[in-house]
Recover the amino acids of this structure.
């Protein structure tokens, strides 16, 4: 008989993850005065929030961290209401939601999209529990709501209706698009949301309403954010070592895993090794930012948190580093001619962090394929934002899906030729 | 949404891919749909598994069934370039038995109807 797995038996993960969310709130409260935080949250709630809008600039560091934590807590609450255990996909979902709560999602703009998925389930007579991950990841389309309300200045109810409609498309499309890349793009809902954004922005454009790709990009926050997030990643490693009683040899098994969907590391290796992996992946992201002279701000910290979350669900140091190296090679790294984009430019920096969505390509087909995929990803992600007009926050998930599709198709064909 | 039919197809495809990977030249698959459960058995004459391989196979097949992910990710079963092997099957079934020797393997999985 099945041994009801260690992830369920081990309830530590059920406690630790919300503790990190609460930590964000506490840290946020120390960054600004209560009045500034309230004012900052108001600014965040009433901003179009299109890609890239750094909430640390709009509302301040404290308000952005609190908004991120609240967005994560909404996700946590919905998972708990639906009795979903805090395993790999859940951790990836929550950390991604917190991360994007720093640049584009807010605690109210995510709700219509989730409601849209709920309505889809009601109409189709399906369980919401079975679609809870597309619902929560689908909040990538939160700017659809805020752009309609505060960008186009239509009514709030119109924004909510648009959000609900976009959410209703997510479940069938996300399910269908998995087949396109066969699980080699970890941010599948990002791929999906790109198409949904493309559909809606083209409707808006047809009626004279375009969107502007923004670049509100915080600077000068390195020392504050470095002091918060580097210790956070270190705490994960230390806590993981304590949970695994220092038996680190077992961790090598994680590094050998290809990471293709579905790789639930909590389920496969236990929460302790997953925490170590999360901390290491977060640190690799931080080291990359430091090495290229990048900045810590809402979007880059969002990237770090997404990487960290997906280190419970497919990513590990061995399968992300070739991808990141590939992105770096595509930038103005002085190694290749004709590169125009500095490695610390906003787009290139975010591409390096979020390109790790392609980790399964490196994990399954080796580092050379990984480097190539990263290199191609940079060129694709730099040019696809216009397609969805910034309505999809997971632009790298959209690009990653396209890149994975090309690689899978070519590799498949080469394999058939043998 | 991945339908029940697609999930069963996926399980069968993964088990057959597993048998082909083991070099089987003869594979028998049986799907028995009963009132409360579906029993799928795939028997092959492939290279068989040693004790360690049987233990590893059972480890993934004995994962807890993940009904919160099967409607969304279940479509990947049997639809992946590198067959996700028994990992996805383990998430889709409630029980499994693996019998193998020096030649041939029989894998039986049970999926309860909820």
């Amino acid at each position: 008989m099945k041994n009801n797995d260690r992830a369920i038996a081990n309830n530590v993960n059920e406690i630790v993850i919300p503790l990190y969310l609460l930590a964000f709130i506490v840290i946020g409260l120390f960054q600004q005065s209560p009045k500034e935080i309230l004012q900052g949250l108001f600014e965040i709630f009433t901003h179009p929030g299109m890609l890239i809008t750094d909430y640390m600039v709009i509302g301040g560091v404290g308000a952005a961290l609190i908004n991120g934590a609240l967005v994560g807590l909404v996700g946590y609450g919905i998972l708990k209401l639906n009795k979903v255990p805090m395993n790999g996909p859940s951790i990836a979902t929550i950390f991604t939601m917190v991360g994007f709560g720093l640049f584009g999602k807010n605690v109210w703009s995510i709700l219509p999209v989730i409601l849209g998925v709920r309505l889809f389930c009601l109409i189709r007579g399906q369980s919401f529990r079975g679609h809870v991950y597309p619902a929560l990841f689908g909040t990538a389309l939160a700017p659809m709501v805020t752009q309609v309300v505060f960008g186009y200045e239509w009514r709030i109810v119109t924004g909510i209706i648009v959000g609900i409609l976009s959410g209703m498309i997510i479940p069938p499309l996300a399910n269908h698009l998995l087949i396109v890349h066969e699980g080699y793009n970890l941010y599948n809902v990002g791929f999906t949301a790109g198409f949904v954004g493309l559909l809606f922005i083209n409707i808006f454009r047809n009626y004279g309403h375009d969107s502007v790709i923004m670049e509100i990009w915080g600077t000068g926050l390195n020392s504050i954010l470095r002091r918060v997030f580097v210790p956070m990643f270190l705490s994960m490693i230390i806590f993981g070592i304590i949970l695994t009683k220092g038996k680190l040899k077992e961790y090598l098994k994680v590094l050998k895993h290809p990471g293709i969907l579905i790789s639930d590391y909590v389920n496969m290796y236990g929460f302790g090794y997953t925490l170590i992996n999360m901390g290491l992946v977060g640190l690799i992201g931080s080291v990359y930012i430091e090495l290229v002279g990048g900045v810590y701000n809402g979007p880059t910290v969002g990237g770090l948190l997404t990487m960290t979350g997906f280190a419970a669900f497919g990513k590990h140091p061995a399968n992300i580093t070739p991808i990141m190296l590939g992105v770096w090679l595509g930038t103005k790294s002085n190694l290749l001619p004709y590169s125009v984009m500095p490695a610390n430019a906003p787009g290139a920096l975010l591409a390096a962090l979020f390109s790790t969505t392609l980790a399964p390509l490196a994990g399954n087909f080796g580092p050379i394929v990984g480097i190539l995929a990263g290199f191609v990803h940079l060129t694709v992600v730099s040019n696809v934002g216009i397609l969805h007009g910034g309505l999809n926050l997971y632009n790298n998930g959209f690009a990653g899906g396209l890149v994975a599709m090309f690689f899978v198709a070519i590799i498949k064909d080469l394999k058939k030729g043998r | 949404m991945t339908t029940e039919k697609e999930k069963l197809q996926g399980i069968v495809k993964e088990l057959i891919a597993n048998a082909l990977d083991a070099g089987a030249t003869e594979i028998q698959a049986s799907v028995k749909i009963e009132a409360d459960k579906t029993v799928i058995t795939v028997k092959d004459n492939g290279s068989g598994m040693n004790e360690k391989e049987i233990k590893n196979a059972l480890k993934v097949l004995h994962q807890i069934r993940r009904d919160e992910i099967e409607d969304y990710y279940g479509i990947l079963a049997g639809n992946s370039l590198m067959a996700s092997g028994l990992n996805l099957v383990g998430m889709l079934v409630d029980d499994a038995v693996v019998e193998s020797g020096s030649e041939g393997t029989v894998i039986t999985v049970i999926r309860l109807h909820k």
